[in-house]
Amino acid sequence: MKGTIEKALKINLDPQIYGTIAEIGAGQEVARNFFVAGAAAGTIAKTMSAYDMQFSDAIYGAEPDGRYVSYSRVNKMIDREYNLVLERLENHRPEDTKFFAFADTIAAKGFKSAHDCHGWLGVKFQSNPLEQPNKIILHVRLRENSNLQQQQTLGQLGINLIYAAYYLAQKPLKAIESLLDSLSTERIEIDMIEFAGPQFKHIDNRLMAVHLVRCGLTHSVFFTRNGNPVQGSDLLYRKHILALRGSFRPFTIVHQDMLHCAREAFLEENNFREDEMLVLTELSMSHLLAFGNLDETDFLGRVDTLCKMGFAVQISDFARFHELKCHLHQFTKKQVSIVLGIKNIVEIFSHGTYEDLTGGRIEGLGKLFSRDAKLYVYPKLLKDGVIRMVTEMTFKDEVKFLFQHFLLNRRILPLKRFNPEIIDVFTRDTREAMKNGDSEWEEKVPEVVAEVIKSQKLFGLKQ
């Protein structure tokens, strides 16, 4: 693994690489690393920072939403700087030059402010001389407590990004993994990445996003209802969240009923409009990796079916419900509630679930139910044909009064308007019917889901 200065020097000594660096919000550490490495005159045509908002708007144009730390802003920065370097230097540099423009826009720790520290970084670059450019854009969350530390971290990350663009672009997964060379997730988290341009036309950015979780660069990534990767705040900001965890292999009519019932109850219980809430379907990495390596077709198929149903999707590495819920509150101050089954309630109240927490079960439940969170619980069909509601559950003495507390205070709510005619539909049985060529599986999934499964031949479907 090459260090930051070693990478910067290699770039500086490459006579083909030439471009500009624009940094806003955390010093000029990326440019500084090139200068510290030496021979920077061979790489850098210009460095700049436009901290004043009027200067920044005059250069890059005002953002309609007024935000300066955004995907739109970093895109405008690399587009303008790249166009300028081409306009001014293309006819004055050797024909084998590969031009680039790097930019970042950062909300770093301020002298008095206590805002969320995050930012966007991007590089627009030619993989080969005279070719159309490519882009790599990423979003980061800064974990360190001082502005100086954050500046240093971003300086290292910027060098890693430019190095990856020029020396690892043909191996995008390796490029992603290299972004934290000389860094750690205790210092910075990369929670979104986007590849674009002719070099990356074969890449599916959804797979790149899930690789961020796989290799530990972030705890979760998000996809819009259209299936596009999105930064968490852009999706969840100011939204009330109703989340359903599952393997969704496939998404069945029971999942559909769970969300339908929970959505109605969520809106009634909290008295807010439907456009103020977002339904989120969450997949755990443990579900995606249940059979070893990631099956890309299987993963993309699950995302496609969920998006066709009109749901946003989250991929995370969280094993426990309180971890998921607390993570979602990083992106919204509104209510976050979860719809689940009775089996999950048993897990939630189990002492073993929280053995690693100092406060044990009490700490875990406190985190889960904080900020007025609620659990909407779908009933269970027992072997004798009886339907059990969450209100009928029994626990040992050590936990039964704790369970009753949350039940009586309406933090655990039974879903009563379920469809009893479909409660015997199970994901496992549906998948077995698909593998055996039994056409009855189509009755157990929504019509749009069946269409995706048949068109993509998903989940072991027998032809």
Let me know the number of strands.
16
Radius of gyration: 25 Å
Strand content: 15-25%
Helix fraction, binned, reads 25-40%
Order of strands across the biggest sheet? Answer: 8-7-11-10-9-12-13-16
Distance between the termini: 47 Å
Looking at the structure, what is the overall shape?
elongated
| CATH overall fold name of the largest domain | Rossmann fold
Mean pLDDT: 95
| CATH H level, superfamily name of the largest domain | HUPs
CATH architecture label of the largest domain: 3-Layer(aba) Sandwich
Structural class designation: alpha/beta
- The low-pLDDT segments are none
Count structural domains. 2
Q: Helical element count?
A: 17
**Main sheet, how many strands, which sense, barrel?**
8 strands, mixed
Identify the CATH class of the largest domain. Answer: Alpha Beta
Description:
The model has no long low-confidence stretch (mean pLDDT 95). 43% of the residues are buried. Helix 11 runs antiparallel to helix 17. The longest helix is centred in the middle third of the chain and has 21 residues, at 147-167. With 463 residues, the protein is an alpha/beta fold. The chain has two domains: 4-203, Maf protein, CATH 3.90.950; 233-456, Rossmann fold. It has helices at residues 4-12, 29-37, 53-60, 71-89, 147-167, 172-178, 205-214, 232-236, 253-270, 285-288, 296-308, 321-328, 342-348, 360-369, 397-408, 427-435, 447-456, and strands at 17-24, 44-48, 98-107, 118-125, 134-142, 188-196, 220-223, 229-230, 240-245, 277-284, 312-316, 336-341, 375-378, 380-381, 387-388, 412-414. Strands 8-7-11-10-9-12-13-16 form an eight-stranded mixed sheet, with helices on both faces. A six-stranded mixed sheet has the order 2-1-3-4-5-6, sandwiched between helices.
